[in-house]
Structure formats: structure tokens, C-alpha cells
Amino acid sequence: MAERVLHNYFRSSSAYRVRIALNLKGLAYEYTPVHLNRNGGEQFAAPFAALNPQRLVPVLSERGVDISQSLAIIEYLDEQYPQHPLLPATAADRAYVRQLSLAMACDIHPLNNLRVLKYLSGPMRQADDVKQAWIAHWTKAGLDALEQELARAPQRGRFCFGDTPTMADCCLVPQLFNAQRFNIDLAPYPTLRAIDAECQKLEAFAQAHPARQPDAE
Amino acid sequence: MAERVLHNYFRSSSAYRVRIALNLKGLAYEYTPVHLNRNGGEQFAAPFAALNPQRLVPVLSERGVDISQSLAIIEYLDEQYPQHPLLPATAADRAYVRQLSLAMACDIHPLNNLRVLKYLSGPMRQADDVKQAWIAHWTKAGLDALEQELARAPQRGRFCFGDTPTMADCCLVPQLFNAQRFNIDLAPYPTLRAIDAECQKLEAFAQAHPARQPDAE
């Protein structure tokens, strides 16, 4: 058993957040793929379903501790490994970075993830264009608010907060990746795109990209 | 201007979380109602829309700092006011409480909040029974996983973690309130109901209940 295992799926944007955080901190990990779309969903079978009753990736396993929920994992990594802090130094600034992160992790991503899209086309029998309108609606609502917030924020630097990447950037890059995958026009989001471009220059972000994972298709 | 203002809506379960946290810490606040369902939604108009571009309650305003996202607010309160800690002492235990909280804040609540239900019945023209099936599906998926997790957890005490309420309990009680409001059968969740019953004994939880807020209908 490796010292640190990330139960992972290349295209999961919440797993992508954690991969970025691990890379920023320079922490090596074993990549254990959990294929969300094969064999009826490997997350529903043993051993993963016992590891995380939510049946969602990612899960980080480290020294007998298993943690699910990407933001809980990132906060844990930040507390355990002080190199490259992913949260700022003051309570108000940490609140700001958490607020940005949660705006994506609560109010954009969960509405558009695989299990919700499957429910729309499965039990609800919605056509592809209705599903696409759903994705566009929630993505745009979320990105519109983020753009408005970040465009005016004195805290913003090259990244969401200041000039080094934080947890908020770990969330932003996968969220924009997702948006592009679903053909959302990013033209109305110049601030978000500028931050994304800064992130893409860093190896920690590049190596976390879905296309570069061992289970990429 | 009061020292501390909570922009609030009595029935918002994310606002309810923050009211519990403020009460547990014994922090007085001014209650500023933002009616989500009147005048086309007061959250879409000035001054609230400028305060929070996400147009979502709650927002905490304190000494010139405005924070949205309930979990960001609770973490901020916990860092600023050490009385009655809402997160445990070790990194692994904090990760566990955050994981439980995020399982509700990301994967149950955002799928069933007012704006989503309005989208289902509005642009998607779904009948009430389809909407009710949607609510039941995501609530049960979330509560099933939480019950399974908490029933087996050695960390559980009278509350989600140990014998004093944490951020996870601030999330659980509003989530169960919501589930009951939508007629979800709570019989399959004995562990969750037992924790809820312990919480209900405390004045901090009772005073935060939607029915006891100044804008309650």
C-alpha cells in the first residue's frame, strides 16, 4: 500500500481540484482509477462503495485516514503540509478564498456532474437539448457571479487571490475545463480566463489535466 | 449599522446553518431579511445583488467584511471566536467534520434549493410529481450515504462528531428540516434522527429554527 492514494477519475472535476493541490504541494501519490462510467459505475461496487458511502470520487487515503469531499481533502492537505499554502494568512482572506471555492463546489459543479446528467436523461427522459440548456443555465449563473466578484475584487492578483494559487484556483481551472467541454462560451469571462491562463503556465496545473491521467480516454 | 448583520431568509437551510453557528458561539446579530420569493426575489435587486453577485443568502457582514457561502461563514466564525469550537482539534478530525458538512452542502442542498425547483417547474415545465421525485431522489441519495457513514463512525457521539455540536450538526439539522418539509420518510435514518433529537434539546438550535425567525410566514 502506497503512503498516499488518490481514488480518482480523470474527468471528475472535483478529483482534478485535488490533483492540482497535491501537485502544488509537491506531494507524490498513487493514482487509483475508479471508472464512473464502466461496469455500471465502479464507484457503486466494493471496495470503493465501502470506502465512501457517497459513491463519489475523489477519496484521499493517507496513513489510515480516508477523506472524501475535495474541499475537505484540500483543507486537510493545507493543514498537514505547510509548503505552498492554499489558504491566505488572515481569517477574512481565508473566508474569501473559501467563499469563491464553495461558489463553484456547491453551486455550479454538483448541478452538472455525471450523476445529475444521467438522472436528467434517464428517469426524467429529457432530450439532449434540454440537458444542454440545463448545463448552460447553471454554469452561466455561476460563472457570471464569479466574474462579477473577481473583476471587482481588490484581493485579486494574477490568481483568484493574490499572486500565488490558492484553493480557489484549484476549483476554477477544472470548472472552466468543464464549461469548455460542454461548449459554454467563455467570452463573457475575461477575468476568469486571465486567471486560468496564469494557472495553465504552471506545471502543477498542467500535470493535473484530465488528458494527462493514466485512465484518460 | 449593527456590528454584525446576517442577511437572511427564514426558510433557507444554508442561512439556518449559520444562525445555529452564531447561537452556539453566543454571538448577537442583526437579522436582515431578504425575501427570496417576493417582489420577483429581493436577492436579485439592489442592495443585495451588489453585496453578493451570487444572489444567494446568507451573507454575514461584520466590521467591513462581507462573507457569502454558509460554510465559509461558519469557518470564519470559528477562527475569529474560539468559544465553542465548531471544528475538532486534529487535522484528520477536522477533515471528517468538513467531509460530512460538504456532503450536505454540496451534494444534497444545492440540488433541491428554491432556484433549482423553480427551474424545474418553470423553463423545464416539469409536473409537481416529477419535481417531488427529483427532491426525493437526491435527498435520499444523500441521507442514505450519511446514515451509512455515521452509523459506523467511531467518531460519532451524541452529535455527528463527539459530544458537542460541530459544523456538521449545523448542516444536519437544517437538512432534516428540509427533508421533512418535502415529506421524505426519515424512518430509514435512525442515526441521523438520534443526532437531530440531541440537537433539538439545545436552545442554540431551537432559536435558529425557521418558524422562530422574524420573517417567518
Automatic annotation (TrEMBL), chains A, B:
SUPFAM superfamilies: GST C-terminal domain-like, Thioredoxin-like. Residues 90-217 form the GST C-terminal domain. It holds the Pfam family GST_N_3. It comes from the Bacteria. Gene3D superfamilies: 1.20.1050.10, Glutaredoxin (3.40.30.10). It is an enzyme of class 5 (isomerase). GO terms for biological process: glutathione metabolic process; L-phenylalanine catabolic process. Residues 2-85 form the GST N-terminal domain. One of its GO terms (cellular component) is cytoplasm. Its EC number is 5.2.1.2. Keywords: Isomerase. Signal peptide: none annotated. GO terms for molecular function: glutathione transferase activity; maleylacetoacetate isomerase activity. Belongs to the GST superfamily. Zeta family. This is Maleylacetoacetate isomerase. It comes from Duganella radicis.
